[in-house]
Amino acid sequence: MAFTLPKLPKLSGRTLVVLAAVGALAVGAVAANASKHQQAAAPKPASDQAAPLTANKASDQTSLEAAAAAEAKLGQCRSARLIPVNKTWGIPMPSVNGSSSTNCNLKYGDNPYRDSDRTGDPETSIQVLQRNLNSCYGTKLTVDGIYGKNTRAVVTMVQRKHKIIADGIYGPKTRSAMNWRLYSTSTRTWSKTCSSPL
Hints:
Blueprint: H1 13-41, H2 50-72, E1 79-84, E2 89-95, H3 122-137, H4 149-161, H5 172-177, E3 180-184, E4 189-195
Antiparallel strand pairs: 1-2, 2-3, 3-4
C-alpha cells in the first residue's frame, strides 16, 4: 500500500513572504519568552538590594541580642513600687531596692534571693510580676515569690508574643513591652483591662 502526500496549493511569492515574516515573529517571541524565564531563574547579582536588607536584619538581631545581654547583667529587682502613669493610675511593678527605678531584672533561680546579698524584698517583686502575668495573660502561676521554671516559661511566652528576645529574663524591655493591670490609689481599685501604657 503506497502512501501519497496531499497536493498543496500553489502560493504566490507575496504569500510566502508574509508566512516567512509571521514564522520569524513567532520564533522571536518564543526565544524572548525563554530568555525571560532564564533571567528570572538566574541568581541575582551581589549588588542587588536584597543583600543590604539581609545585613540590616542581621545587624538588628545582633543589637537586640546585645541589649538582652546587657539587661541580663542588671541587678536583681528587690522591691516593688507603684509607678505613676497619670494622676489617677499607677502600675505596681518590680523595682530597684530603695528607688523608683525599674531598671533591674528577675530570672530563673531567684528563690527569692539571687546570691548571698539579703537586702530588699525580691519575693514581693517576683509576686508582683506573677500576679500581673496571671491577670493580664490568663496564666495560672502559683504566686510564691520564686522565679522557677513555670515563671520563666510564661515570661518567655510573653516575650514571643510581643516579638522581643525570648530569653525568659524579666527586664526593662519585657517591662516596656508587656501589658499591665493598673491600680488607682484614690479609689483603691484595679483596672478592668490590661494595657501597655509605658
